[in-house]
Amino acid sequence: VVRTIVVANQKGGVGKTTTVANLGAALSARGHKVCLIDLDPQAHLTMHFGIDPMSERAGMYDVLTADTSLAEAAVGIESNLTIIPSVIDLAAAEVELAGAVGREQILRDRIDAKPFAYEFILIDCPPSLGLLTLNALSAAREVLIPLQPHFLALQGLGQLLETVSLVRRRINPDLTVAGVVFCMFETGTRLAGEVVRDVKEFFASARGGETPWSDARVFQSQIRRNVKLAECPGYGTTISHYDPSSHGATDYNALSEEFLAAFASD
Amino acid sequence: VVRTIVVANQKGGVGKTTTVANLGAALSARGHKVCLIDLDPQAHLTMHFGIDPMSERAGMYDVLTADTSLAEAAVGIESNLTIIPSVIDLAAAEVELAGAVGREQILRDRIDAKPFAYEFILIDCPPSLGLLTLNALSAAREVLIPLQPHFLALQGLGQLLETVSLVRRRINPDLTVAGVVFCMFETGTRLAGEVVRDVKEFFASARGGETPWSDARVFQSQIRRNVKLAECPGYGTTISHYDPSSHGATDYNALSEEFLAAFASD
Ligand SMILES: Nc1ncnc2c1ncn2[C@@H]1O[C@H](COP(=O)(O)OP(=O)(O)OP(=O)(O)O)[C@@H](O)[C@H]1O
Ligand SMILES: Nc1ncnc2c1ncn2[C@@H]1O[C@H](COP(=O)(O)OP(=O)(O)OP(=O)(O)O)[C@@H](O)[C@H]1O
Ligand SMILES: [Mg+2]
Ligand SMILES: [Mg+2]
Which residue of A57, A106, A266, B140 has the fewest C-beta atoms within 10 A of its own C-beta? Predict the structure, then answer.
């Protein structure tokens, strides 16, 4: 069974792209076949792997608006890691698809159209809850929420969960929240401690209820702020290749381990 | 003459809201009458001042889609500082206005409709180049670009400048780029040094040309990473009230001084 995971948070700059790139790479390094999908018109995930989003290649725009299959748009990165890149036209897709029948389910159709020989699909989303993110939520089984432990970043959590609820009720009954992972974590700051406590309390009080997040976990593995994570996209690679001994590599490795253990027990 | 400045960058989480709140407050503390406009449906600027975006009050949604004037939606913060808040419906405005005649110029109409007794208007934008940001660019004279000195944040600069060019050519001939301010600056990292050098070279080579950014400056004042800046929104206030002796307060003060000096010489 393919595990399709959407990495979403409408707050900007909280670590979505960095998490898809590095968690994806860590899962594939452990032998799992992983496909990454770049649904952000700004194409940062595509750039993270050194791929030029302005090139003529087929990308997610063609998959969503034309007859290009996911397999045709796929670009191999390593033996177990593939990416479906974003090209700059993807921004036009939001407007072009606004009137399409079942416009939120185009991506799901494309994924279901061809048997997909991957174990994990990770989808990177833009910083909004627009049509592209809705397509990801409709195609996925689980939502992973990267969260910067800051006041402003915490404010949007309610709205994101609300949107997940709506998608689950109206379009995708399988959708659940896998959990929250704290990114850019600055250990020792009072602010981070307060936000983590608030988030843990929120999910603890929802446990066992009927919401899409009643089984969600706050991942123990926190991704510490580490400049190497901001450097590696400039070299078109992931942290485990760029600096395997850095905190960034250790933290994303630990997250991949916890992620696999969490799934195994499901 | 009112100076209308749009603070824009489609990259998420680079310091747009923090800059509008704290630069605005620093300018008003120096005796200038300042109005802040929250054009982000996520309403982070509104929250930064402790205002509830879910409350029934009139906000930017009503100004853009109904007959509410800016003055009616305005909320006084201090003697020289006013905000026009965002309410959660603002996200609907993008869709509702998509078919309106001159849809990018609604905000400009509203600002021009009533003589505005402010010296500075600072507009906070969402992390996208959609209709709300286009409204801000059409209404403003200057664009201030907050930039995190990271590889991924640098990639979108070209597209942002391209969009400024289009707006200037087709809608707003007065639009120019005031400059770039580096936010969340981590002194001493090689990455920050490289990005700053690249950006300075880019604007230096454009100087004296015919582009909207040929007079743009890279502000000397850099806003250093400082957790107090992330704490103060949780208290509904700005850095100069929350912790006037912090780096954050010093840096935004220095930026306001440089900003005023730059304008004085225009
Ligand atoms: N743990 C970390 N430590 C230091 N820098 C980080 C970390 N995680 C991400 N970054 C950097 O911070 C910036 C924001 O991260 P990223 O782009 O992954 O967030 P995002 O949520 O995808 O942003 P957007 O909303 O614009 O899509 C990037 O420049 C990235 O390189
Ligand atoms: N210099 C700084 N030092 C530390 N934290 C900062 C600094 N500037 C901003 N922050 C924090 O970093 C986060 C991102 O900043 P902010 O929300 O202002 O960016 P933005 O560009 O407005 O984001 P968005 O794209 O989501 O609108 C916020 O939590 C903010 O409190
Ligand atoms: Mg991203
Ligand atoms: Mg903001």
Answer: A266
Instruction: Work out the minimum CA distance from B257 to partner chain A, whole angstroms.
Output: 27
Neighbouring CB atoms inside 10 A of B207's CB total 12
| Ligand 4 geometric centre to CA of B16 (Å) | 5
Rounded Cα distance between B203 and B222, Å, is 17
Tokens 């020989």 locate to A117
pLDDT band of B266, cuts 50, 70, 90: low
User: In which element (H, E) is residue A230 found?
Assistant: helix A227-231
Give nearest CA residue, ligand 2 atom 26.
A12
Q: Which residue has the tokens 């001994």?
A: A245
The reply to whether B17 touches chain A by the CB within 8 Å rule is yes
CB neighbour burial string for A170-196, b if at least 16 within 10 angstroms, e if fewer: ebbeebbbbbbbbbbbeeebebbeebb
Q: Using CB atoms, which residue from A150, A156, A227 is nearest to B186?
A: A227
What average pLDDT does this structure show over B104-133? 92
| B94 has a pLDDT exceeding 80 | yes
For residues B28, B29, B31, B37, the Cα torsion angle rounded to the nearest 10 degrees is: 10
Nearest atom (ligand 2) to Cα of B20: 18
For residues A124 and A18, give the distance between their C-alpha atoms in angstroms, rounded to a whole number: 9
Closest residue by CA, ligand 1 atom 8: A15
